[in-house]
């Protein structure tokens, strides 16, 4: 028996969910190609995602910051 197709978790959408690219790590939903982005499926954890991305970017920028050596 072939594996059952998972339906999109977005309300009123009858499309099949995309494997891997349609899985939302923030709300654990499974979405079709039209709703796979956080903004498109109105992810309830969108603010957490933005905050996490901001913190990762800030850490990366601090790590790559050029150090000024005084007295040279």
Automatic annotation (TrEMBL):
Task: Decide whether keyword RNA-binding is in the record.
Answer: no
Q: Which SMART domains match?
A: ZnF_AN1
Q: Does the keyword Transmembrane apply?
A: no
Gene Ontology terms, MF aspect:
zinc ion binding
Q: Where is the AN1-type domain?
A: 2-51
Keywords attached to this Swiss-Prot or TrEMBL record, sorted alphabetically, are: Metal-binding, Zinc, Zinc-finger
Superkingdom of the source?
Eukaryota
InterPro entries, per database record: AN1-like_Znf, Znf_AN1
**Pfam families recorded for this chain?**
zf-AN1
Its recorded name reads: AN1-type domain-containing protein
